[in-house]
């Protein structure tokens, strides 16, 4: 009887509880007066930014902006103020593989332990100036990313605004961990197959809070073999259509030309990794408006864990392959998102991807900086951020020096504002 009453209460109260407004009052207006403002496209020395509530109110020459009554003025001499950075590919529920191999994280670490770690990861991400992250798979931690996102939104823990992919989708038998044929062990993603099975799984994930659907369009079926396409074209088409009907984009893990081609034809938003991409498939991506998130930092980190000493030992095949494919990608003109697959390496070290793109792959600092702000926002269809313009979210970072000239200036974070509130100072 008691449980029936409780159920009745929850059914009656549930929607109302979910709609309660956040308890905190609107933040006070902020007038930020740095040495220069990078608005997502261009550097403007002598500019200032005014916020009101959780939005940007005005951006322009400091002399033209005055603080309204009740506003707080922050003098930021020597600093560059820019939009909050956007991480394109994170796994807050993973930690570096040289601490604990991926298999052991999935099989041996409890979800409580993984969530506790993730709260620290979220804080480190925000402190590094990343106010938004696409978190592309909980890797065996179920829907813990949805709860993590809610905890951040409710102000219980500091962290970036999250777009979560929840469990991700893999073809049965293609993913891991794999022990022996005799035991079924929990997998790092949800297995689903066939048109019916995939539609159901996509809807289930969306119903439980997925902002993004992630699909593994190819993977290695066994150890020491190359990746091969997993899902058929029909399966991918239906999966993308189902997600699109619900207003969710699909991102595809793919590194083979055929896996990338099928994902592109199906209409995914981005392809993650793309290590085996050819000029032909990158041109198809460009033609279809599909962006590449090359995740060079993950490969760099893993090669290091396997003993590669950059500069002294010869470059592993995988790194050489990455250089060739990214060269082809740049030649094709495909759009590039910036995301490092952080989690493979330490959260808070998110800048590693952009730094590698500048130091080793021919990007300018300005290109990488636009990538982390306005370009990522555009490619991920987040029109409310990534630039400093009136009406957009007041997510701001102040750093020492000029990151348009030296991307590593982004390591010198002095201030983080999220939704008009100073969260790191
Ligand atoms: Zn990943």
Written overview of the protein:
The protein is 35% helix and 22% strand. It has 425 residues and is α/β, with parallel strands linked by helices. The chain has two domains: 30-77 and 393-424, Urease, subunit C, domain 1 (Roll); 85-350, TIM Barrel (Alpha-Beta Barrel), CATH 3.20.20. The strands form five sheets. Strands 1, 2, 3, 4, 5, 17, 18 and 19 form an eight-stranded mixed β-sheet that branches. α8 links the parallel β15 and β16. α5 (194-207) runs parallel beside α6 (233-245) and α7 (257-266) runs parallel beside α8 (279-288). The N and C termini lie far apart (53 Å). Bound molecules: zinc ion. Residues 89, 91, 136, 341 line the site of zinc ion.
List the helices and strands and how they pair.
Elements: H1 2-18, E1 30-38, E2 43-45, E3 47-52, E4 55-61, E5 72-83, E6 85-90, H2 102-108, H3 111-127, E7 130-135, H4 144-153, E8 161-164, E9 169-170, E10 190-191, H5 194-207, E11 213-216, E12 218-219, E13 228-229, H6 233-245, E14 250-254, H7 257-266, E15 270-273, H8 279-288, E16 291-293, H9 296-305, H10 317-332, H11 352-360, H12 365-379, E17 396-400, E18 413-418, E19 421-424
Parallel strand pairs: 1-5, 6-7, 7-8, 9-10, 11-14, 14-15, 15-16
Antiparallel strand pairs: 1-2, 1-3, 3-4, 5-17, 12-13, 17-18, 18-19
Helix pairs in contact: 5-6, 6-7, 7-8, 8-10, 11-12
Summarize the structure in short:
The chain is an alpha/beta fold. The chain is built from twelve helices and 19 strands. Strands 1, 2, 3, 4, 5, 17, 18 and 19 form an eight-stranded mixed β-sheet that branches. A four-stranded parallel β-sheet has the order 11-14-15-16. A three-stranded parallel β-sheet has the order 6-7-8.
